[in-house]
Amino acid sequence: MCCVFVDHAPVTKGVLGGLVLSSVTFNLPLSSYRGWFDFNYSTIFDQHNVLRYIGSRSVFLDPKDLLCASILLYHFRIFERRYGSRKFANFLFGTFFLSLLLELLIIFLAHRQELPLSHHPVGPFGPVFALLVPYFCDIPRVTVTHILGVPITGKSFTYIIGLQMAASSLESFILASCGLVAGLFYRSNLYKIQSILRIPSFISSLINKILGSLVASAVPKDEVPPMGATLELQRQQHIEQLEQQMAWAQLQPRPPEGNPFGFGLFGNGAARDRGEPARPVPVTAALPEEQIERMTEMGFDRDKVLQALRVANNNPSVAINILLQES
C-alpha cells in the first residue's frame, strides 16, 4: 500500500515501509526476538538501557496498532506535500523525542507513586498522534451530515481511527496523550524547540543519497495532481492550486498601453516575441511592518518574506503560498 499510493511523499513512504517491514519481520521470521522490545522501569532507570527503550518506540508489534497508524500516516501525507519533506521529517523527529521525554517522566512519576504500569505498548505512538495537532488546526472542517444532532465531518473518520488506537488500554491512552502534548509543544515552538530538535543537514543528505532512490516517485508527464482522501483535504488542495495560479498570473507584466488584450497567454507575448525578459510587476504600496513581522513569526526569513512580497505584489496570502512552495 505504502509504495503504490503514497506518491510525492518520500518520508511518509519510507516511514510506512519501515513500519510494515519491521512489524512483519518481528511477527513472523524473527518472532523469537520480540523480547528485545520489552522494557520496564528497571530497564530504563536501573540498567540504563536506553537503546532498548528507543527501539521499542520504533516498531509496531500489534497488527491493530500498525493498521491504525498506517491509515493515519496515509491521511497525514498532505503535510509533507504542503510543507516539504525536510520540514515534515523534522516534525516527526522532534515530536518523537519530545514524546519520549514525556513518557519517561510519566513512568518515573508512576513508579514513585507506586502505580506501576501493567505493560508498555510498543510503537511510535508519539509522532503519529502529534500529527493530529496540525491536522486539527490547519485542515478546514466541513460538515457532511448530522447524527443525533452531532455534526459529522470528513475528518471524523480520522479521529475515530486515532481514538480506536488510543483506547486499547490505559497505557496506550497515555502514549497518545504524550504525542498530542508533544505536537502542541513543537507547533508552538517554545524555547525555539524546532531549531533544537531537527535533523542535521549532513544526516538528511546522507539518508537521501542512500534511500532517496528507493522512496522517490517518478513524475509522469501527463500526471493528474493527487487529491486528498477527505473532502477537507481536497478543498484545501483546490485552494492552494488557485493561489498558485494567482501567484503565477501576478508574475506576468501587464500589457502596454494601446494593447489592452496583449499577445499570448498572459498578455506578455510581445515581449516574448522580441526575446525580451519579462518586466517585474511593480509594487504599488508598502505593506505595514506589523504584517511583515507576522510572516516572520511563522518561521520565514525576513529577506525571503520581502522578496516573496515583491513577487506577489504585496499580497500576503500569495506571498505565504510562495514561501511554502519554496520551503
Proper CATH architecture of the largest domain: Up-down Bundle
State the end-to-end distance. Answer: 28 Å
Identify the strand order in the major beta sheet: 1-2
* Cα radius of gyration in angstroms: 24 Å
Condensed summary:
This protein has 327 residues and is mostly helical. It is 61% helix and 3% strand. It folds into two domains: 2-215, Rhomboid-like fold, CATH 1.20.1540; 231-326, no CATH class.
SSE order and pairing:
Blueprint: H1 2-5, H2 10-27, H3 41-46, H4 50-56, H5 63-75, H6 77-83, H7 85-112, H8 125-130, H9 132-138, E1 143-147, E2 150-153, H10 156-166, H11 170-188, H12 193-196, H13 201-215, H14 231-251, H15 269-273, H16 289-297, H17 302-311, H18 316-326
Antiparallel strand pairs: 1-2
Helix pairs in contact: 2-5, 2-13, 5-10, 6-7, 7-11, 14-18, 17-18
Which short descriptors sum up this protein?
327 residues; mainly alpha; Rhomboid-like fold; 2 domains; two-stranded antiparallel sheet; 3% strand; globular; disordered N terminus
Can you tell me about this structure?
The protein has 2 domains: 2-215, Up-down Bundle (Rhomboid-like fold); 231-326, no CATH class. A hairpin with a 2-residue loop joins strand 1 and strand 2 (150-153). It has a two-stranded antiparallel ribbon with strand order 1-2. The protein has 18 helices and 2 strands. It is mostly helical and 327 residues long. The model is unreliable at 1-5, 219-225 and 250-284 (pLDDT under 50). It is a multi-pass membrane protein. Residues 286-326 form the UBA domain. This is UBA domain-containing protein.
